[in-house]
Amino acid sequence: RSRSHAHQNGRHGHSELDHATYNTKKIAIGDKVPDFEVTINGKKLKLSELQKNAAMTENGTLMLTFWCSFCHSCRHVEHQLDKLAKQYQGRVGVIALDASAGETAEVVAEFARENDLSVPIALNPKGTAVDIFGVHATTTTIVIDSKGVLRYCGQFSDREHSYAADALKAVLAGEEVRVKKTRHKG
C-alpha cells in the first residue's frame, strides 16, 4: 500500500497523506491508543516501549506530529516542534512521526542535520499510525497521556492558537484538554 504525500493543485501546498482504507479501526479522543511500531535511529520500537523510555518521558506522555522532509507545510511547524522537544526533553516524548513510504533513515537524518533539527524523528513507513489516528494531513499532532489515552488530535497550531502545546500543558497539569480535536490541516 502506498503512503505518500499528494500535493494537490489549488490547495496552497497543503500536504495530504494518501492512504487506502484498511480494517484498522480509527480511534477517538478518550480511547486507549493501540501499539504500533516505529523506527528511531535505526532501532525498531513499539509505542509502548517509547512510553516506558525514562530518558524520553517521565510518565509515558507523548506528543507525535506527522511530518516529512519533503512537505511544504512541515517547514512551518518543524522549528516550533523542535523547540517543544527541547523544552520538554526528559519529561515528555515530543517526536516527529514520518509515515511516508519513500523516506529513509539516511534522508531524514541528513535533512535534520541540514536544518538544525534535534527533535527525535520516528519512521512509520507502513502507515499504521495514519490508519489508527485517521490522519489525512501532515502536521497533524496527537497527544497521548501517561495512561496511553488519546487526549488531542488535530492541527499543531494556527496563527492564533498553539493547540498541541496547549493540549500538552493541560495533560501534564492533569486537566481536561479544552480543545480536544481540530480539523487536520497540513
Question: Can you offer a commentary on this structure?
Answer:
There is one protein chain. With 186 residues, this protein is an alpha+beta fold. The protein has 5 helices and 9 strands. The longest helix is centred in the middle third of the chain and has 16 residues.
Order of helices and strands: EEEEHEHEHEHEEH
**Low-confidence sequence ranges:** 1-23
Q: Given the helix and strand composition, which structural class is it?
A: alpha+beta
Q: Give the biggest sheet.
A: 7 strands, mixed
Distance between the termini: 22 Å
Mean model confidence by pLDDT: 87
Kindly estimate the percentage of residues that lie in beta strands according to DSSP: 15-25%
Helix residue percentage:
25-40%
Tag the structure with descriptive keywords.
two-stranded antiparallel ribbon; 5 helices; seven-stranded mixed sheet; 22% strand; alpha+beta
Secondary-structure blueprint:
Elements: E1 4-7, E2 15-18, E3 37-40, E4 43-46, H1 47-51, E5 62-66, H2 72-87, E6 93-98, H3 105-114, E7 121-123, H4 128-133, E8 140-144, E9 150-155, H5 163-172
Parallel strand pairs: 5-6, 6-7
Antiparallel strand pairs: 1-2, 3-4, 3-7, 5-8, 8-9
